[in-house]
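Researcher: I'd like a structural prediction for the single chain below. Treat it as a standalone chain; there are no partners to consider.
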Amino acid sequence: MKSIVWDFDDTIANSYPGIVSATQRSLRENFDISLSKDTIFKESKKTSVRKFVTDLLKDEDDTAQAVKLFYTTYFRYEKEYHDKITLIPHIKNVLKYCDDEHDMQFIVTHRDQSIFDLAKSLGIEPFFKEIVSVADGYKRKPDSNMLDYLMAKYDLKKEDLWVIGDRQIDVDFGRSVGANTILLNSAKVDFDYDHKVSDLLEIEKII
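Model: Treating it as a single chain, here is the predicted structure.
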């Protein structure tokens, strides 16, 4: 039996418009830092919003406190966009295909507890055996912590495990345990991956 671990933001759901806007507004409001949405999007996709913001605020007197302040405002603004989040094209088709194949599917995400309500409102919750969030106290990707948890709990074998995401951090996450990786990205990238697709339907030919 195959096991599939999905990233959420920009892999399952088109949530980056809200993420980028909330980042932009929080940086401007709290630190008088003005960046274009395009810059925020590109830099966040390289690693994560947290890494990008932490690096940006590294010269603050107390970086950890500054990041905490950023997120207090960020979460308030990002929540305003939840009802505008839509599914990535064809994701339900692929989730159903994997479900029909009796694959075990999971979401592993850096998103906070909002992931659980979003999965319900988007109508995808029934496809997943479990949803794991760093809000539950796990270490962030690419640390293998969340995958280690799933592999131990469900006796998942690395040769049958697939990790799907839109960033290098997702590929590195999968490779941290020797899993197969699929990168959802239409752009040219400068890092290694096992498989790369620009349309989710291509996944059905790979897995």
